[in-house]
């Protein structure tokens, strides 16, 4: 008796499901067959043309492939690759937390096992001296870029420059930290977010002399096209650090523009010109800022600011008038 009831109940359930499915595949107006229009992302009736559903979600890829080889080549899964990791981010990492998927602490035996797995995983990730070199250098680049607040595109460019130097065998006789710092300095200038040598030296593990020597060597050997730093690229950062107004920033840019037209900026430090323009603009807008404040932000001497801001004011047509 019980088996009969179960069979009857199952049969009714299956019949209800079939009825619901058939209703979904039929037009609610005329009972016609529904078809999917992938071009317009709609579900329409092939009899009366009623649009039953619209804005359907296309869950397929955005690319087309005409054979299996092209499909395998275009298919992509997982995290994107990056030049900022020595293995391009393709390998896996074992987390340092000794917890399972539910957040429970592992036993002592399991912790020992995980530690052995981490050790072997690290050994497999760096198979030779070249990969160990690259891992250390890219970690150094990321550390210095984070300390100076450089964006991700600068770090990526610096990683590419260092990889080129390593592939062309430019490292013998030079320290890993020196070449990594030079690559970051060159990448920052290429991206239009330059940092001064003093700022780079403050976060680097090499002195300024080694940095400048290695930088010239890398630029010459790799034929890097690096334009002279524009003083205006320093102005927004100095204005932000000193908490000055937008009017002061605009005035500073105008002073630098006048100096460029009259050739005053030629042969002078871009950082010094930028700091002097900020100080001069603050005077013109009656904002309270001292030469010492600007000197600390720009990492240059007060003497340089005094000399340069007078030259900027003399070159300004507004001030001479």
UniProtKB/TrEMBL annotation:
Domain TFIIB-type intervals: 23-53
One example of a Gene Ontology biological process annotation: transcription preinitiation complex assembly
Binding site for Zn(2+): 27, 30, 45, 48
InterPro entries for the chain: Cyclin-like_dom, Cyclin-like_sf, TFIIB, TFIIB_arc, TFIIB_CS, TFIIB_cyclin, Znf_TFIIB
UniProt-recorded Gene Ontology molecular function terms: DNA-binding transcription factor activity; TBP-class protein binding; zinc ion binding
Stored SUPFAM superfamilies: Cyclin-like, Zinc beta-ribbon
SMART domains to which the protein is assigned, alphabetical: CYCLIN
Classification via Gene3D superfamilies: 1.10.472.170, Cyclin-like
UniProt keywords, alphabetically: Metal-binding, Repeat, Transcription, Transcription regulation, Zinc, Zinc-finger
Function: Stabilizes TBP binding to an archaeal box-A promoter. Also responsible for recruiting RNA polymerase II to the pre-initiation complex (DNA-TBP-TFIIB).
Entries under PANTHER family matching the protein: TRANSCRIPTION INITIATION FACTOR IIB, TRANSCRIPTION INITIATION FACTOR IIB-RELATED
Name assigned to this protein: Transcription initiation factor IIB
Protein encoded by which gene: tfb
